[in-house]
Amino acid sequence: MPKGGKPRHGEKLIPYLFAVLTEVWVELKTDDGRIYFWNRHDNSRAWSLPEGEEVKWIGEKSPDGRTYYWSRKSKETVWVLPPLEEPKETKEEPPKGALASLLRGEKPGKDSGTKVLLEPASVCLFLQ
């Protein structure tokens, strides 16, 4: 596809069927008019978006040179972008079960509810 964004004769423009609208990437323009994308999360820049993502915010210059942003979806205009949502932390649960207990060095007891089917000496671990 040519730079103007319009397909050539016989070329079809196929949008992503499942594009994710993201606030992380912002569409901006260089001084000479080339479009690039700014990642607000890690402050990186790219000439193209990751596959399957669609920007929510587009940055434009006002007549006095200040940058404002407008939302492609809602057409809302702002001077300052809303803060990004903090990524949700997922707690990793420790492994459970008799083998996990043995690997942690715990000894099975009568009250633990852990049944040992193998003698500890018969459990082999291969470490690299």
Automatic annotation (TrEMBL):
Residues 85-114 are annotated as: Disordered. SMART domains: WW. It comes from the Eukaryota. Residues 19-52, 57-84 form the WW domain. Residues 85-95, 104-113 have a biased composition (Basic and acidic residues). This is WW domain-containing protein. It comes from Durusdinium trenchii. The lineage of its organism: Eukaryota, Sar, Alveolata, Dinophyceae, Suessiales.
